[in-house]
Specification:
Helix content: 10-25%
Order of helices and strands: HEEEEEEHEEEEEEE
Structural class: alpha+beta
Distance between the termini: 52 Å
Largest sheet: 8 strands, antiparallel
Shape: elongated
Strand order of the largest sheet: 1-2-3-4-5-6-13-12
Number of helices: 2
């Protein structure tokens, strides 16, 4: 009887260790592999798996998977730090019910070979509809506009200024005014309303091509920065 009891206790301890230590490590490995397949590469990536109760892990389900990485690359982005939370995760199926988190110190390589730096990209939503929000520094936004005008006209503007909620003024020898907008393709564009220089519409950033975001909205903040909102156009779990 004592031998049977000891065997049962030993089995219970083994199952407890499997649930609390073994399965989280296995699931963390699966999630890390999925992120790598999706395009995330980093020297330092940590994945933490939680479920309450822990026995839910036996059903191949995790309440929350937290992913942190530093000095990472993801597609055409270099990311200083990444902090993502995946909720309601079916680990082996690589699916989640919800996602939220932040990508910080992001440098994005543009289609023309240039680059743009974003302090952070905040993401939230379901894997099929992840909303992404970021802010482009005002000076960098003005430089993007000046570059686009120079490429179109051959002359660099003397100045570019932005003001809320979506207005801009460009000095190209004559004063040109217009608005910032998002077109049907999810691109950030300048639409000129007073255009004596005949510059026409300018595309500043191609959504999904320059940015990992299909843009839906743009606003000039009171500080003169650009707040961009859109749908994340890349899969997080592959």
């Amino acid at each position: 009887m004592r031998g049977c009891l000891f065997t049962l206790l030993l089995g219970a301890v083994a199952i407890a260790l499997l649930v609390t230590i073994g399965l989280p490590q296995v699931y963390a490995g699966v999630v890390t592999g999925a992120l790598t397949a999706a395009g995330l590469h980093a020297d330092d990536t940590t994945v933490h798996v939680e479920s309450d109760p822990p026995t839910e892990l036996l059903g191949l389900h995790a309440d929350t998977v937290t992913v942190r990485a530093t000095d990472a690359t993801f597609r055409e982005m270099h990311i200083g730090s990444l902090d993502l939370n995946l909720h309601g995760v079916a680990v082996l199926d690589r699916t989640a019910k919800a996602v939220d988190g932040t990508l910080s110190d992001v440098t994005v390589t543009l289609s023309d070979g240039g680059a743009i730096t974003l302090d952070e990209i905040k993401v939230a939503g379901t894997p099929d509809a992840i909303r992404a929000t970021t802010v482009v520094d005002g000076a960098e936004a003005e430089s993007l506009i000046a570059d686009a005008v120079e490429q179109r006209t051959g002359t660099r503007p003397a100045s570019v200024s932005l003001r809320a909620p979506d207005r801009l003024t460009v000095d190209v020898g004559v004063t040109v005014t217009g608005t910032l907008d998002v077109n049907a393709a999810g691109d950030l564009v300048v639409r000129l309303t007073d255009d004596p220089a005949g510059i026409g519409e300018l595309v500043l950033l191609h959504g999904t091509k320059d940015l990992p975001i299909s843009l839906t909205d743009v606003q000039v903040t009171k500080a003169g920065d650009l707040r961009l909102v859109g749908d994340l156009s890349i899969g997080i779990l592959g």
